[in-house]
Amino acid sequence: MRFVLKTLLFFSCFNVFAQLEEGFVYVTDEIPSIKVELRYFSENNFVGQKIEGYNSNVVILSHEATKTLKKVQSELLKDSLSLKIFDAYRPQRAVNHFRKWARNVNDTLTKQDFYPKVKKKNLFKEGYISTHSRHSSGSTLDITVVDLKTCKELDMGTAYDHFGKESHTFYGGITQKQKANRMFLKTVMSKHGFRNYPQEWWHFTLRGEPFLNQYFDFAVE
Q1: Measured by CB atoms within 10 angstroms of the end CB, which terminus of the chain is less buried, N or C?
Q2: pLDDT tens digits for range 5-33
């Protein structure tokens, strides 16, 4: 009986670790100082509920993306700053959850907070929701910068996941300080090999990503 229990425990632990695909790592294992607020593991997102496939508040990325991100974090720490991750690897089932939500045009409970000027029926057409996400390839992440002295995020002019032109990286209708903060984030990420998606100041993808056009579906846990 004791042997059976030990065997079951071994395979139980093995299954937990087997969830992570080869070539992926837990970011905080490699960069312990990085901040994490996984929005899709909470109800604080544009859907208004925890998203399918997000089973734990952990951040997963490809090994290559994590290794490069560590260089960014090291540079920021010198100035008492830190990256904060809102999302990284995203399973395909989560993208499917977004699509299902977007098709229900009568569910607009989060409109005021996340897409006040965009009609929900236009979310597909305007590119806010799609059938696949670069996040599912494992080298894309959504981030901001935190001041470690105040524990506050730098003011970027909009909240994370705000659907609208106000979130475009080079949007002109924000303060000079907000523009400077966006450019600071873009510059430090670009310096270390990440390119920005111009419609979202928070969205970056590793240049030369290892799993280009591969869309994984293992759970975040």
Answers
A1: N
A2: 444 444 444 344 446 999 999 999 999 99
Q: pLDDT digit string (tens) for 123-149?
A: 999 999 999 999 999 999 999 999 999
3-class SS of residue 113: helix
Residues above pLDDT 90, as percent of the chain: 90
> Which residue is associated with the tokens 């590119």?
127
Any residues with CB less than 8 A from the CB of 173 and at least 6 apart, and which?
166
- Dihedral sign for Cα atoms in the order 190, 193, 194, 195: positive
Q: Which of 116, 96, 120, 97 is nearest to 107 (CA)?
A: 120
The answer to whether the beta carbons of residues 163 and 129 sit under 8 Å apart is: no
Question: Could you tell me which of 215, 220, 210 has the C-alpha nearest to residue 64?
Answer: 210
Non-local (6+) Cβ contacts of 58 within 8 A are 26, 28, 36, 38, 220, 221
Eight-class DSSP state of 158: S
